[in-house]
Amino acid sequence: MSTLLEDKRQSLVNPQQSNPFKDRKNPYDVQSIEELTSNPHARNPVFTFKTRKLRLKCPYDHDCSSLKRYKNALSLYWHFAYDHRNKSDTRIRIQKVADTIIASYGDEIIKGINDASR
After folding, report:
1. Sequential DSSP letters for 11-25
2. E strand residue ranges, 36-76
3. How far apart are CA 11 and CA 3, in angstroms?
4. S-S: 98 plus which of 16, 38, 41, 93, CB 3.0-4.6 Å?
5. What is the SS3 assignment for 57?
6. 3-state secondary structure (DSSP) of residue 82
7. Does 116 or 35 have the greater pLDDT score?
8. Long-range contacts for 74-82 (Cβ within 8 Å, ≥24 apart)?
9. Confidence (pLDDT) at 10
10. pLDDT digits (tens, 9 = 90+) for 11-20
11. Which of 28, 34, 115 is nearest to 74 (CA)?
12. Comparing C-alpha atoms, which of 54, 22, 29 is closest to residue 109?
């Protein structure tokens, strides 16, 4: 029997136990409100926080339907990237939305991060 087949059989009996992603650092680990950022990123907890009471609305009212509402800032960001890609101030507007989320829900975001890390 060839050595290749023996190696294959061994790996099936003893599968690899290492996780290549376990040491990867989340760039948005925060401990206080001062550390929360308004940079649009899929791992940023400000952008993934679901605003329960406040459904986000597109600030470009003249271009969008008034019925469009978004559950978090990341979905609003992707709406900007797709529907308003030709506008030059989309990053400034999404960062203003993120700043209002930090001001309104900053303590809840940090509490949720600390509860999830336990």
Report:
1. HHHS-----TTTTPP
2. 56-57, 69-70
3. 12
4. 38
5. strand
6. helix
7. 35
8. 74/40, 74/42, 74/44, 74/47, 74/48, 77/40, 77/47
9. 56
10. 555 566 677 7
11. 28
12. 29
